[in-house]
């Protein structure tokens, strides 16, 4: 370590301060990449309502699930945000990233360390020991204390780049939490809609089976009257039983959706059985979804923002690796005091000090540091490509969901017309069969077609809402409320105060013994 006299100390400080102020952070400075975005969506027609086309409006994504007008669903979403385990994991990662950033920022500050020691020794009764200005023989005490300080000047920005990368990492963790919430709300809403769809389809199967059993009873009566055949009775009963066979499968799918809902809420699988027991209509969107322009996804999609923050983080890591190739300059100093009595500590005669700069220069490392820079550059390229891929995927998601929703709405209108026609045909065929003007095959075919059309219409209603959910997710609709990322999941019982209290009690007990 180099030592300087007090007279030369101001000059040294001025030189180091000038070097510090002139220092720079090496490596590339991050700039958000410019992405060529389409000026409009390929499916220029958005979902229309009575209010007309809403393509030019910016996306309104705040609490989009409330547009489905289902209070039970709203409550489930609130519970999921509070209790979901993936969300809890994402919040823990935010706390980790926040702590890492604090560590990185702390590296920019001076470090001060204190130390103290006490020694009792005996070097032999016939030999005198010199301790300071005092000569002692036999057992003697030695007290030492000191302070040491160091400050890495970071002239080339290695620590600053590390703090920059940690800041971007914290931003990324927060975006990852928002993306987890987006996926969660979409999954909760989708599973809820599917559960209501299975409920509605099971109810339809029960109603249809009951109606078909009535038809079978009517056919049996006609058989006894001699105006129907045993074949007609067998066909009627077989169709009723076939419809009833759909009910267990639908009930099983319903229970699986409810169980998945409970897991998403962080609860046991059967905990929502009572909540979902009472049937409710399949939620349906009541208004169009404004899509805005493609560039909106750069700001609204948390996965896109996450990819951009990761690109920024790994750009900063290039500078961190580059700075490691330059000299490392630190200021180090130490003050120490020693004496044979506690009262003599801190006196001029027992104080020693040292101060000076410390320089570490990498001279030969066989290309290891250069390879580290190249690795960081390649890693940055990987995240740049990942960012571009994420943007393209986001655009694809919006286009696909928009097309799917619009086409499913068209399909649903045709299914509704089909079900209406089959309903009329089934009613007419049954009337004609009762009057003896039609064969039973007409009734059988009409009832089978009606059940199939009504079931398909229910499935289409579920698909419409699922596509509506997918479109809101694709546009970046997630949780816009506050999320507490400060509170830990595990509260330790043994904190610092508890440790200190136990140590004091044990020390007091040892003194008594």
UniProtKB/TrEMBL annotation:
<keyword id="KW-1134">Transmembrane beta strand</keyword>
<dbReference type="InterPro" id="IPR003423">
    <property type="entry name" value="OMP_efflux"/>
</dbReference>
<keyword id="KW-0564">Palmitate</keyword>
<keyword id="KW-0472">Membrane</keyword>
<keyword id="KW-0812">Transmembrane</keyword>
<dbReference type="GO" id="GO:0005886">
    <property type="term" value="C:plasma membrane"/>
</dbReference>
<comment type="similarity">
    <text>Belongs to the outer membrane factor (OMF) (TC 1.B.17) family.</text>
</comment>
<protein>
    <submittedName>
        <fullName>Efflux transporter outer membrane subunit</fullName>
    </submittedName>
</protein>
<dbReference type="GO" id="GO:0015562">
    <property type="term" value="F:efflux transmembrane transporter activity"/>
</dbReference>
<dbReference type="InterPro" id="IPR010131">
    <property type="entry name" value="MdtP/NodT-like"/>
</dbReference>
<keyword id="KW-0449">Lipoprotein</keyword>
<dbReference type="Pfam" id="PF02321">
    <property type="entry name" value="OEP"/>
</dbReference>
